[in-house]
Specification:
single chain; 481 residues; alpha/beta; Rossmann fold; N-(1-d-carboxylethyl)-l-norvaline Dehydrogenase, domain 2; 3 domains; 7-stranded mixed sheet; globular; NAD; UDP-Glc/GDP-Man_DH_C; NAD binding
């Protein structure tokens, strides 16, 4: 999708004409700067972002776009070198241009050395908290290490802001540790969860529906709140609360959205059997303001770096405290089984045996407009197909998947992936798959069969009558020509 306006222009529009006033540090003064918000001058903190992945880099570039000076720290030297050159290590719409603009304005810097940020007042921590395969708990070793490194160099009264999604009670535990190990520094922990969607993360940063700030002390919460002053001026709700409530909000939000995804998929299975149009069903319930239209698209189930990890962590927390989260556990079970359900439908379509059959997989990212393949339904199916003995050819316009298997190859075009295929699996909702004229590959495939996991294929197109087409939520449409 083309970006019509530069991030600077979009930022200006989103902030409704808000005027920024930046003054650099003078000799003998602390490296702070002020920016104008409304009729008053707000003193801004010096900011450090630790961890520049999908969350941290958006946070850093977003704050720098306001005119705030941001120092970014990450242990990955290759990533830091890329960023210094203005090359983002992730794909996100508008990020490339926004990164280059903030670098050119001298507002953002990158380093592997946390000591270079020793003059910072606010440290935003956005490191990974992956799920332990053994326990189901979120792993906190990266977070613990980052907080320890920050505490060693941070000045007195610095605030450490946890952006990472963490189990309820984590921030309280970190605060107790800092109070014990660094009492003279009076360091404070604040929870400030992110609510960004990959693929639209930069736009989401500039258009938040709410900002949640949790901390034990009012002063720490207020200092974080000031860094979001531009949003507050626009009327964005600010939820100031304690750390446990803030942590719970993040988990509960993701679990609820995962439940919506799973619910519509259950209904789509029913519609597939009894008849009806699942897209119209989703629209009919989504127009109810009590429900809303988001996350009601029938498909292969949720994936990505958040929903699978966070639902499992929430269920594990519940069991650990003797309060079983039965709805969440059911959602996890249903979502996990969805991949198996799709695999069986493909097996049935190609003759019950996948061994030796070539399958084209169009799309690898867990959703469109991102290169993230973490917990992607498409990737799960690639591995499942290979285990069944299939020969898999994939194509994705952005995402890459390295699989050490003689029967797997990632191609550089849709046509190359489809050559010799007994089935074409549309696995990610990229716009180019939606608009693709499959007549162009009719002579290349072994069989004209499409399984549309995302319900994006235009079934009114001229080429459709020559293909067998199956879609999530619909029975098989057999070729009529």
């Amino acid at each position: 999708m083309a970006v019509r306006d530069s991030p600077a222009a979009e930022t200006a529009r989103w902030l409704s004409g808000r005027r920024l006033c930046l003054t650099g540090p003078s000799k003998g003064l602390s490296p702070r700067h002020d920016y104008q918000c409304g009729n008053g001058i707000v003193q801004a903190e010096t900011i450090c972002v630790v961890g520049v992945g999908y969350v941290g880099l958006i946070q850093a570039v977003g704050l720098a776009s306001f005119g705030l000076k941001v120092k970014c720290v990450d242990l990955d030297a290759c990533k830091i070198e890329m960023l210094k050159k203005g090359v983002p290590p992730i794909f996100e719409e508008g990020l490339d241009e926004a990164l280059k603009e903030t670098i050119a304005r001298g507002l953002i810097t990158f380093t592997t050395d946390i000591a270079a940020a020793a003059d910072a007042d606010l440290f935003f921590v956005a490191v990974g908290t992956p799920t332990s395969e053994r326990t189901g708990n979120a792993r906190l070793d990266y977070l613990d290490a980052a907080v320890s490194d920050i505490a060693a160099v941070a000045p007195q009264d610095a605030v450490i802001v946890v952006k990472s999604t963490v189990p309820i009670g984590t921030c309280a535990g970190l605060q107790a540790r800092l109070d014990r190990d660094h009492p003279a520094k009076r360091l404070q922990i604040v929870s400030n969860p992110e609510f960004l969607r990959e693929g639209t993360a930069l736009k989401d940063f500039f258009n938040p529906e709410r900002i949640v700030i949790g901390g034990a002390g009012e002063s720490a919460r207020e200092r974080v709140r000031r860094s979001y002053a531009a949003f507050e001026e626009r009327g964005v709700p600010m939820i100031l609360t304690d750390t446990s409530t803030s942590e719970t909000i993040k988990y509960a939000a993701n679990a609820f959205l995962a439940t919506k995804v799973t619910f519509i998929n259950e209904i789509s299975d029913l519609v597939e059997t009894v008849g009806g149009d699942i897209d119209q069903v989703a629209r009919g319930i989504g127009l109810d303001s009590r429900i809303g239209p988001q996350f009601l698209k029938a498909g292969p189930g949720y994936g990505g770096s958040c929903f699978p990890k966070d639902t499992l962590a929430l269920a594990t927390i519940g069991r650990r405290h003797g309060v079983q989260q039965q709805i969440v556990e059911t959602v996890i079970r249903i979502n996990d089984s969805r991949r198996f359900h799709i695999l069986k439908r493909i097996e049935s379509a190609v003759g019950d045996k996948l061994a030796g059959k070539r399958i084209a997989v169009l799309g690898l990212a867990f959703k469109a407009n991102t290169d993230d393949v973490r917990d992607s339904p498409a990737v799960d199916l690639v591995h499942a197909l290979l285990e069944e003995g299939a020969d898999v050819r994939s194509f994705d316009p952005v995402a890459r998947l390295a699989v050490d298997h003689r029967s797997y190859r990632q191609c550089d075009s849709i046509a190359a992936a489809c050559e010799g295929a007994s089935a074409v699996l549309v696995a990610t909702e990229w716009a180019e798959f939606k608009s693709f004229d499959f007549a162009a590959v009719e002579a290349l495939v072994a069989r004209r069969y499409i399984f549309d996991m995302r319900r994006i294929v235009d079934v009114t197109a001229d080429w459709v009558p020559r293909w067998d087409i199956e879609r999530i939520g619909s029975p098989l449409m057999r070729a009529s020509l």
